[in-house]
Amino acid sequence: MSELRRHWTPTAVAFLVLAVAGLVGTWIFNAFAIVQMRDFVGDLVSSGPAVSSITVDLLVVAIAGSIFIIVEARRLGMRFAWLYIVLSGITAFAFTFPLFLAMRQRRLSARADQRGTS
After folding, report:
1. 3-state helix vs strand vs coil in the chain, percent to 5
2. Do 111 and 76 touch, CB atoms closer than 8 A?
């Protein structure tokens, strides 16, 4: 198996596909907001109770996911975990969290291989 494709389990690939969908999906709407010169933050908090509910929902999930990223990355010895959180502010948590999960799955697969060959 080529080194580039090594440790890409079906679960890791599924998470990677979700990461790409999260990036493309969020950035399409970000582009619309920019083109329409919308107040992005203002729209999040003042466009009615449903939007506010979704905003709080996703914010809590993003905070919990960020804590999980830090704790799990430390447990697995994954370096630069903070970068996923920083990039989520520039891209979207819908991109960085599944990306982290894909990289985590690869790490778990690599560790399983190491135990199997030891």
Report:
1. 80, 0, 20
2. yes
At residue 118, the pLDDT reads: 59
Percentage of residues in the chain having pLDDT higher than 70: 94
CA atoms of 59 and 63, how far apart (whole Å)? 6
Angle (CA) 26-78-13 rounded to 5° is 50
> Counting Cβ atoms within 10 Å, is residue 36 exposed (0-12), middle (13-18) or buried (19+)?
exposed
Alpha helix locations (H) across 36-92? 40-46, 49-76, 82-90
Cα–Cα distance for residue pair 74/13, rounded to 1 Å: 22
43 pLDDT band, cuts 50/70/90, is confident
